[in-house]
Amino acid sequence: MKHLATVTLIASTLSVLHALPSDAFSLSAINSSPAQFGLGATESEIIASGAAAITFGDTTIYIGTRQASANNQDPILASFTNGVRNWVRADYDTSPADARGIGIVWDGTDNLYAAFTIDGGTPSGQGFTRFTQGGWLSSYGPGGGAPASVLLKLDPTTGDGIPGIGTYIRSQTSNGQTNTVRPTGLELLTGLEMMNDSIAFFGNSFFSPLRVDRTRMTQTDTSVSSPFDYRVVFNLDLTQALSAEAIGWDGVTAFSDLGIPDDGEDPIDGEDPIDGEDPIDGEDPIDGEDPIDGEDPIDGEDPIGGGDHGGMDPQPVPEPGTLLGIGALLVGGAMLKRR
Questions:
Q1: DSSP symbol at 221
Q2: Do the domain assignments include residue 5?
Q3: Residue 188 to residues 145, 215, 315: CA-CA distances in angstroms?
Q4: Mean pLDDT throughout 329-335?
Q5: Are strands 181-189 and 198-205 parallel, antiparallel or unpaired?
Q6: Cα–Cα distance for residue pair 84/172, rounded to 1 Å
Q7: DSSP secondary structure letter of residue 219
Q8: With bands split at pLDDT 50, 70 and 90, how would you rate the model's confidence at 206?
Q9: Would residue 338 count as lying in a domain?
Q10: Within a domain: 226
Q11: Is the dihedral of CA 30, 36, 42, 45 positive or negative?
Q12: How confident is the model at residue 259, as a pLDDT?
């Protein structure tokens, strides 16, 4: 039985969504498992697929995965107004690497962001790198097989990706290879007094999460096992990570508050909990430990097909759970309804 993605107006009880500002006028949705639909799917068929969706007024945007060939998957998004298709797009990544549409966050205006996964690097012109060249991380990185995340800003009127407003989000093994980060949540932090507009990405990271300066974090609580709850807060252009935290790493035991500061300083409590630390002086802080934890990498999902993954085995990754309830009041009386 397929899992339907759920969008509500109740603040999430998931631990990764800690202390979200009550003034955040946005909704987000995450696929609990791969939801597949095709370019010609009707809205009813997309709903039946369980694809994550957000509705503002009469318009609903869906995100999922298209089976492009027997060995390859591509992400797909579609928009409908009153049952009539506005657009459908499946050209964000058309490379041999497997890519999937995981989640979206939208405020009903032009702030639409989508989260994806991809399991390898892509040839120029075929993949997400068309949109991520100016991003915090501009590419998949070395290796292949481990699903990394990608965050893009899209035009809600056409579905187009916006060049230059995108980033990869990945972790890194002790030998420098790309490791798994899977999206579990998104939250827009906009329209808040005394706070820079930003977007929070929540994910499950394997060994080891990256700091703001892109160096590997140091595990400080070895009782916490992978995957690790990971949060990165970006500026809206996705060129800069404002904060990066992972539970059990660099002394973090709980995510810091995302509330509005009293003095107009840094929106993340006036301090960067990771920034400014010595990045281990070029040494490998985690030498000798097993970077992959020896777990089953894909948990029985469809085989990753088609791409050249540099000879690496896929890294461990759980399926993201359905995001339960993100967002609060709607802007300007926008009417929310579920289809």
A1: -
A2: no
A3: 30, 25, 29
A4: 37
A5: antiparallel
A6: 43
A7: B
A8: very high
A9: no
A10: yes
A11: negative
A12: 63
DSSP-assigned letter for residue 304: P
* Alpha carbon distance 32, 5 (integer Å): 6
> Domain range holding 269?
27-332
Q: Which helix (H) or strand (E) holds 47?
A: helix 43-49
**What's 48's DSSP letter?**
H
**Lateral strand order in the sheet of 228-235:** 181-189, 198-205, 228-235, 241-246
Does residue 301 surpass a pLDDT of 80?
no
C-alpha to C-alpha distance for 281 and 26, rounded to whole angstroms: 40
Domain count, the chain: 1
* Model confidence at 260: pLDDT above 90: no
Give the separation between CA 58 and CA 68, rounded to whole angstroms. Answer: 30
The answer to whether residue 21 sits within a structural domain is: no
The string of pLDDT tens digits covering residues 102-153 is 999 999 999 999 999 999 998 778 899 999 999 999 999 999 999 999 999 9
- With 0-12 CB in 10 A as exposed, 13-18 as middle and 19+ as buried, what is 305? middle
Residues contacting residue 135 through CB under 8 Å, at least 6 positions apart: 165, 166, 167, 168, 238, 239
Q: In the structure, what pLDDT confidence band is assigned to residue 309 with cuts at 50, 70 and 90?
A: very low
329, pLDDT greater than 80? no
pLDDT at position 307: 40
